[in-house]
Amino acid sequence: MVRSLLLYLLFVFLSLPGFSAGQAAVGHIANSSLLNVLPGKPQVEMGKFLSVRIVYIGDSVPESSYLGQWFEDFFVDRQETETENLPDGLIQYTEYLRLYPRSTGNKVLDSIALGGAFARPVSIKVMPAIRAGIDGAPHWQSLPESIWQGETIKVSIVQDLLHPSNQIVAEKVLFPGFYVQGPEKEIILHDNIKSVQLNWFITANNHGVFQLDAPAIVQRGRGRWRFYLPRAVLKVKPLPSYIPATIPVGKLSIQTGILYKDNKPFWWAELRNEGQLPEEVYGIRSQLSELLNLPVESVKQLSVEEFKAQENSDYPSGFIHRYQIAVPEWTWGFSEGPEIIVPYFNVHKGQIKIVVKKFPAVWNISKSWRYVFLLTFVFILLAIFTLIVKGLKNIMAWRRYRSLLSQTSQAHKLRKMLLAQADFLTLEAWSLASAQADNDEKLKNIAMQLNALCYAKSYANSNADPRRISVNEIRQQIMEMHTFRYWLIFNS
């Protein structure tokens, strides 16, 4: 009787208006137990927290309450617990909570159970965090409905600053089932409002339906707010069963090049993907070793540290692989080098695609043969140079000959010039040489005419009439017939 009276008085006491600043939800009495959910006030602003007490009165200390039904609308921050022994053997167990709303509007703290007692639902009003007409609550950027397992996407959260001097700080994000990189911070200005966009790159490690629970985002400066976003749902589709685990997923690109170490050439192949790359890309080592007829062990995959040290690169690990292989001896650089073919699963097409890339051309021969080829090349250049010099000399000599020929007006000087070309004794010998040079009978007539001019009495019985012949005519005929080709024949 005394116990029932005590519970009744406690019930009346907890129901008094002064017991809490807000509305108290009074639980049902069952098995001599009592449960109450007591918010500090009936409303809360986004970015602020609502203090809530869960008060249980019963025979023993219960386990912590399960509040999963509140998680959709509130982030639950458990503070501390308190236990007090009441008269007549009863125990009062109190949990202190901070509830951060995830969105605005009229919310309900659904009924909970603890130690066999039940608490009625509690209504809470959540107001927006607005200053100077700016709503400071963050929000998700649109996400795809589904992605492939192994695919990497960008996840973004945008928040307007309630004051331009405010700062945004995001706690460490935890997306179970995903590999996470970031965040990267971008500043956006629109309509005289300064916003911050936080970007993460997440890669789906497993398939299934996942809830992305955003980290707490704190805006501080002119005031302080701590925001929690509603959970985002993302479906991850499993890869087709025929795809090996070593095939990259995303969109693959390949770059190739040459580097020199200790004067030795090395080919390198750099694989970049929109998402992560497997530790060992499908068949690339064996492919390179077969192409270059080298053992597989000679194809080296650079670690992230080696790559960053070599290229001073800040590319994130997991997005890039670099393979390096020594160029074989006796590699001729007349054309492009061997090509590399890498398959990957294209997440945009939903099927396997291949990337083909060729190594650049390079010359690589042993040192002793390099000297042989270099010496041969030098001899060839000298021979070509000698021929060019000789040709230029012949052209210049021929031009001098033509100049002298055009200036000669005396028959004896002209005859002497022709005989001096190849040390001919007579003009008949000169004319025969001209005939051997694929000329005709015209040169023989020229020889007879020139002899007639020089020795008219000796050729009185000849067909040539010296009275009808002039030196200028003979000289003109010689210049027409005696080209550079004939001059070379006479002087060879």
Question: What does this protein look like?
Answer:
The chain has 492 residues and is an alpha+beta fold. It folds into 4 domains: 2-127, Immunoglobulin-like; 134-237, Immunoglobulin-like (Sandwich), CATH 2.60.40; 250-358, no CATH class; 388-490, no CATH class. The chain has 9 helices and 29 strands. A 5-stranded antiparallel sheet has the order 1-2-4-6-5, with helices on one face. A 4-stranded antiparallel sheet has the order 13-15-18-17, with no helix packed on it. Helix 5 (411-420) crosses helix 7 (442-454). 26% of the residues are buried.
Total domains, how many? Answer: 4
- Major sheet attributes: 5 strands, antiparallel
Summing up helix and strand content along with how strands pair, one would put the structural category as: alpha+beta
Radius of gyration: 50 Å
Keywords for this entry:
4 domains, alpha+beta, single chain, Immunoglobulin-like, 492 residues, 9 helices
Short structural description:
With 492 residues, the chain is an alpha+beta fold.
SSE diagram, text form:
Layout: H1 2-15, E1 25-26, E2 34-39, E3 43-45, E4 50-58, E5 74-85, E6 91-101, E7 105-109, E8 112-114, E9 117-119, E10 122-127, E11 130-131, E12 134-135, E13 139-140, E14 146-148, E15 152-160, E16 167-170, E17 178-190, E18 193-204, E19 208-212, E20 217-221, E21 223-227, E22 232-237, E23 249-250, E24 252-261, E25 264-273, H2 284-292, E26 300-302, H3 304-311, E27 320-326, E28 339-346, E29 351-358, H4 367-407, H5 411-420, H6 427-436, H7 442-454, H8 471-481, H9 484-490
